[in-house]
């Protein structure tokens, strides 16, 4: 929980420690339903086929095939991804539900470095019944940033002993080149012979046909124990977006001995705080 020890700040340790006593009576909550997460996944690049695998509902579908930022998912956090060298500019819509006292008025407080302007409208949320919903808009503006470390702040709604805190994080996102999402990886590995002094390990591997894997050399010959040999693995494949994990194996074998190497490819998720 120490920001001095975690460079990723909220992305590393979340929004803070859980308080079980306050959790049973939080005052306000952010309601998120299945449809909200469906929209989020679709905006992150999942298609209808992959969406149904995740949700387990064959009636689910994506309304759009165009990827984008799903900022309005009703989770109690806000993250602003700014393309490197661009100005900070973002608008969010938040909706909270009153699960505390029926007649309550929450007032706003925020903290953020002075260089970033955060405005929230309205600045007061008044509730008359339990289960009542209120929406608000968060606007974040700031200067151009380049290779900026993560900037942390928060939005807080306060009423008596209740404090509903939403982290607000700004970070830079390096622009992607057109072929950045194409699978293209090169590994160099070295292993040592601890088996027979005179042996030749031959190669076999398993990988989905859409991924091209080449390994050079395709065999390794050893003459003494402890001798080392190196090999190069090259992986090539198509552009992938929010692709489920792709697994494969590389096997070096001699007689009945096998050296098994796992080969796993995966996509990095778009940054989104979840607390």
List key phrases describing it.
Peptidase_S8/S53_dom_sf; 5-stranded mixed beta sheet; about 10% helix; 2 domains; signal; Immunoglobulin-like; Subtilisin-like_FN3; 4-stranded antiparallel beta sheet; about 280 residues; about 45% strand; serine-type endopeptidase activity; mainly beta
By CATH, the topology of the largest domain is Immunoglobulin-like
Domain count: the total is 2
Indicate the radius of gyration in whole angstroms.
26 Å
Write down the overall geometry. elongated
- End-to-end CA span: 14 Å
What is the CATH C level class of the largest domain, in words? Answer: Mainly Beta
Quickly give the CATH architecture of the largest domain: Sandwich
Beta strand count? 16
| Helical stretch tally | 4
Helices and strands, in order, run as HHEHHEEEEEEEEEEEEEEE
The largest sheet has its strands arranged as 2-9-8-4-6
Structural class: mainly beta
Largest sheet: 5 strands, mixed
Weakly predicted, low-confidence segments: 269-275
In helices, the fraction of residues equals: under 10%
| Mean pLDDT figure | 78
Subcellular location: Secreted
Pfam family, one: fn3_6
Keywords: Signal
Family: Belongs to the peptidase S8 family.
């Amino acid at each position: 929980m120490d920001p001095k020890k975690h460079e990723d700040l909220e992305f590393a340790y979340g929004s803070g420690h859980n308080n079980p006593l306050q959790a049973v009576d939080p005052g306000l909550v952010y309601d998120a339903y299945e449809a909200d997460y469906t929209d989020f996944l679709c905006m992150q690049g999942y298609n209808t086929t992959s969406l149904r695998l995740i949700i387990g509902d064959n009636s689910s579908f994506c309304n759009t095939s165009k990827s984008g930022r799903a900022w309005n998912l009703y989770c109690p956090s806000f993250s602003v991804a700014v393309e490197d060298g661009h100005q900070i500019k973002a608008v969010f819509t938040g909706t909270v539900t009153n699960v505390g006292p029926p007649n309550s008025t929450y007032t706003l407080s925020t903290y953020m470095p002075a260089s970033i302007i955060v405005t929230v409208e309205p600045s007061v949320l008044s509730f008359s019944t339990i289960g009542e919903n209120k929406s608000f808009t968060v606007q974040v503006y700031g200067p151009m940033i380049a290779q900026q470390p993560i900037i942390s702040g928060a939005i807080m709604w306060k009423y008596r002993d209740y404090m509903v805190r939403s982290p607000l994080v700004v970070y830079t996102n390096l622009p992607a080149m057109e072929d950045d999402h194409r699978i293209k990886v090169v590994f160099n590995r070295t292993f040592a012979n601890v088996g027979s002094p005179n042996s030749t390990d031959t190669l076999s591997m398993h990988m989905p046909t859409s991924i091209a894997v080449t390994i050079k050399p395709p065999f390794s010959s050893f003459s003494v124990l402890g001798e080392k040999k190196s090999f190069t693995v090259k992986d090539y494949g198509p552009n992938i977006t929010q692709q489920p994990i792709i697994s494969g194996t590389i096997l070096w074998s001699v007689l009945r001995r096998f050296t098994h190497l796992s080969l796993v490819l995966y996509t990095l998720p778009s940054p989104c705080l979840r607390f």
